[in-house]
């Protein structure tokens, strides 16, 4: 995961349309790509950060989305164009799964926002965040630092539309990653997931 200075403990997450996903119907795509956005700040010795981490999730998918938060085991809906604001205390670590609003129960194959805000490797709480398609892919997700717009993690490529066949379409708006249980240090992504290699975990 990429460390973020605790001087800025607010993340902005954009979810772009999946387009050719079975449930996506419109095309309000985010236009920025990783190449267009400056690198985020490196972690430095700073005063301890705020008491909580704020993650703002903006739905630009063109459809309503469902979320599942782990380990809280909470589900929710983010309406098309809406912003969900989540607050997490220090020592929290978990994930937010994203899928079509038609699938409330977590499937286990969704695109994930993975983050933590703890002090296990530092003298004070540090933010780590990544976007993961290791289990599967539903919608493209990009993560930025809310203070300066710096790119942190994620891939906005609409994998459903790039011509590579989903190796295992589960019929619930997600593509199962066939290499999810393979050693992540040595795996070559499946062709469907390969366009996001190095931007999101694949």
UniProtKB/TrEMBL annotation:
Keyword line: Signal
InterPro entries: Osmotin/thaumatin-like_sf
Segment forming the signal sequence: 1-20
Taxonomic superkingdom: Eukaryota
Annotated protein name in UniProt: Uncharacterized protein
Organism encoding this protein: Cercophora scortea
